[in-house]
Amino acid sequence: MEEIQSQSDNYRSSSSSASSPASRVPSSNFFYLRKPGSLRQPISFEDSPEWEDTDIDVRVEEGGDSIHIATPASPSLSKLNSGSLPSPPLPESAIFARKIAGASIVWKDLTVTIKGKRKYSDKVVKSSNGYTLPGTMTVIMGPAKSGKSTLLRALAGRLHNSAKMYGEVFVNGTKRHLSYGSYGFVERETTLIGSLTVREFLYYSALLQLPGFFCQKKSVVEDSIHAMSLGDYANKLIGGHCYMKGLPSGERRRVSIARELVMRPHILFIDEPLYHLDSVSALLMMVTLKKLASTGCTLIFTIYQSSTEVFGLFDRICLLSNGNTLFFGETLACLQHFSNAGFPCPIMQSPSDHFLRAINTDFDRIIAMCKNWQDDHGDFSSVNMDTAVAIRTLEATYKSSVDAAAVESMIIKLTDKEGPLLKSKGKASSATRIAVLTWRSLLIMSREWKYFWLRLVLCMLFTLCVGTVFSGLGHSLSSVVTRVAAIFVFVSFTSLLSIAGVPAHLKEIKIYACEESNQHSGALVFLLGQLLASIPFLFLISVSSSLIFYFLIGLRDEFSLLMYFVLNFFTCLLVNEGLTLVVASIWQDAFWSILTLVLMMLSAGYFRLRSALPGPGLLENEYIGTSFAVGQVRSISGYQALRSAYDISPNSNSKWGNLLVLFLMAVGYRILVFVLLRFRVRKNVSACRFFQCNQNTNDAR
């Protein structure tokens, strides 16, 4: 205790610019804003506008459909605009037309262990207690690797298979899992489809998620657009096109949140909503989320750092460090908590910066490096405390504080009575999802020039080159070997051009992984949709390239033979497409996928015995049934002309057997892709497993 007291005294002396806790912390909500006409005065809590202080009143009506809650009055937009820093203007339509029945979440003694996650302990979250209420924003804050995202995933039931959770989680006062559609989860990094507009992207997301007719989902999409203030960007491409720029990072982040809002969830979990956003975009994002919370939705998200203006919009804060809960309660009470522990926030410093400075152990290394430096005012660092001591002090102060007792009493109050059950809103049928994914993929492929249009142009240019080199061969016996070489060059190198589709396939796999984690799609649905959408483009490539090659080379002039040539080449493209998907699913990296495919296709067949190679169906199609004159009297069949070089069958129907082998190869590759998507692509734990984990923990107790 003497060490803690001495460190606290050092910190008090280093923060001499901070006013005393009594004068700094008013009884009302705080917000760092200057009064008009006081621009040259230092910012302090005394300059904050006066807002009423209300107590939380939660009551659950039996038989009702929502929890009625009177939340503390947060700064309204009109009051924020009264200061010198106005908040971003929002359109009137930014508010939902319908109110959302939120839900309360309570977690009690929640502990999460992940083997190998920590150097000294497997516990990522340690005995955390807290709650979140409808119509409020609860933020989980802390330095890197403090357990923020793990706690958020534990509450949403999305922990990884290797994680084990202990403790209790209550939803509306009962231990139950979160059903599909009752909540939304936004990852830190989400994959958006750049070739779609914002409205199209949200509309297809609604079709994948919601049951019912198509026309009923347009109003849901418009509500989501207005809720996230995306009206000005609704008809703009997300990723841009040609010389047109795509959406800025702030709007992209809001689009990813709007995708989850089409389900009108009761609870919305967001992992780092301010990730890669500048200060203006971050403030606009939080004001938009504050508007969303005012409709009744329960918001809980993680955040690493925020500006003073953003910090003033939070309702509650859960402060973590190394998995330990250092504080849970109102944002204003957190400042009082730090003051009581001996670490008051300086006047000119952001509260979140101050909190992280006190509990982030990385600052100890900075002080160790710079302890002998001198700045303009003397010593380099005005903050000379040990963060380990600060963490222990804050944790001990919180456990014995009134705030911790208030949290325990609120947990008892929220779990005393059972609230309404969050029912599942149903899912779109598998047939509907396949149709939607097929149509969406068709639209994407038609707009993405790198997907199939580039391959079409390359195939036609290559075919023209090969056709002009081997044109005018004639039908003599001496032209057989040259004609066979032309066919092999055409098929081999046009198949090699399938590598151009690797980046597009990797993007498709990322989109699938993002949608599958939120149960918007599935492996079988994705594969069928992608296959059906790619067939028209592959058929277009096969027809255009085959016609150019067939007539430039001068192959047999029969329609049935031409159709077999086109069908055989189309099946080869299907096989290559499946092989490309397999390699992309294994590596999930463009460089290694392209390198592997190049080595596989260039060496395919060159290290096999001639007798072990499959029958060349295109050669049988060209030469079975033909004859060549040898001298003036004798003639030989096309089978005899090729028999010495290639093992082909004299039966004219054997070429269909070879075509069947190609078709089975295409199907086999698709099945392998299905297995890889199911077991290799990273997945989150289902909500049922989350419920079973809670039940097993309770039974053990």
Automatic annotation (TrEMBL):
Keywords attached to this entry: ATP-binding, Membrane, Nucleotide-binding, Transmembrane, Transmembrane helix, Transport
A cellular component annotation (GO) from this entry: membrane
Ranges where the record places region Disordered: 1-26
Entry's Gene Ontology molecular function annotations: ABC-type transporter activity; ATP binding; ATP hydrolysis activity
Residue intervals passing through the bilayer: 452-474, 480-502, 523-553, 559-583, 656-677
Transmembrane in keyword set: yes
Location(s) in or outside the cell: Membrane
Coiled-coil segments: none
Ranges where the ABC transporter domain occurs: 105-347
PROSITE patterns in alphabetical order: ABC_TRANSPORTER_2
Main subcellular localisation: membrane
UniProt-listed SUPFAM superfamilies: P-loop containing nucleoside triphosphate hydrolases
UniProt family annotation: Belongs to the ABC transporter superfamily. ABCG family. Eye pigment precursor importer (TC 3.A.1.204) subfamily.
Protein name, as recorded: ABC transporter G family member 3
Source organism: Vitis vinifera
